[in-house]
Design a protein that fits this description.
This protein has two domains: about 150 residues, Glutaredoxin; about 35 residues, no CATH class. Helices cover about 25% and strands about 20% of the residues. It contains six helices and seven strands; from the N terminus they run E-E-E-H-H-E-H-E-H-E-E-H-H. Strands 2-1-5-4-3-6-7 form a seven-stranded mixed beta sheet.
């Protein structure tokens, strides 16, 4: 695969057709990188429509939408299928018909290629997930094998930790204490001593 675009880098510019509804007359719209401005974003890629693991992930992200919205975060799903295939899948599967997030079509695989997440053998996006801050900077990414589905609770956990601006220890969860920032700057590193405001 190409080099994986990493932490601290800007998410690439894009403009894609998206399936946003299964209702006649309102199925499609264009979604571009301007949609990421001013809010946090969670963007997840799945390999193919009409498969077995992928719909379970779409259902779970949809179920978690109220939690993402409470964190002022937009959700976008992307695969290499066409927006017409997305629509057909939504019509075929009752569980997907009323998804509350747009299904973007990276039909030419250009975004997946630029991010470095195109599987070299299968030529499909791997299961990559990104959390972007309001400046479209990548603050977290996770890449799963094609056969392993994601944990949306982990995406939410990391999102809330990032937005807190605090030092969050291992296994931190919402409502648990964070760590006090070191006062001895000679024994700590910059990111442990720098104050960060909550960014929600």
């Amino acid at each position: 695969m190409a080099r994986l675009l990493g932490l601290g880098e800007r998410f690439p510019e894009f403009s894609m057709h998206a399936c946003v509804s299964a209702e006649p007359g309102s199925e499609f719209r264009i979604v571009d990188s301007h949609s990421l401005e001013g809010k946090w974003a969670a963007i997840f890629f799945w390999p193919l429509d009409f498969t077995f693991v992928c719909p379970t992930e779409l259902v779970e992200f949809d179920r978690a939408l109220p939690q993402f919205r409470a964190l002022n975060t937009r959700v976008f799903g992307v695969s290499g299928d066409s927006h017409y295939a997305h629509l057909a899948w939504r019509k075929e599967s009752p569980a997907l018909r009323n998804l509350g997030f747009p299904m973007l079509s990276d039909y030419k695989k250009e975004l997946a290629e630029e991010l470095g997440i195109l599987d070299p053998q299968e030529k499909v996006p791997v299961r990559a997930t990104y959390i972007l801050d309001p400046e479209k900077t990548i603050r977290w990414l996770c890449v799963n094998d094609l056969s392993v589905g994601r944990n949306t609770e982990e995406v939410l956990r990391v999102l809330e930790a990032l937005q807190s601006g605090e030092l969050c220890p291992a296994n931190w969860a919402s409502g648990k204490p964070t760590l006090e920032r070191p006062t001895d700057i000679d024994r700590a590193v910059r990111w442990e001593t720098s104050e960060h405001f909550a960014l929600r």
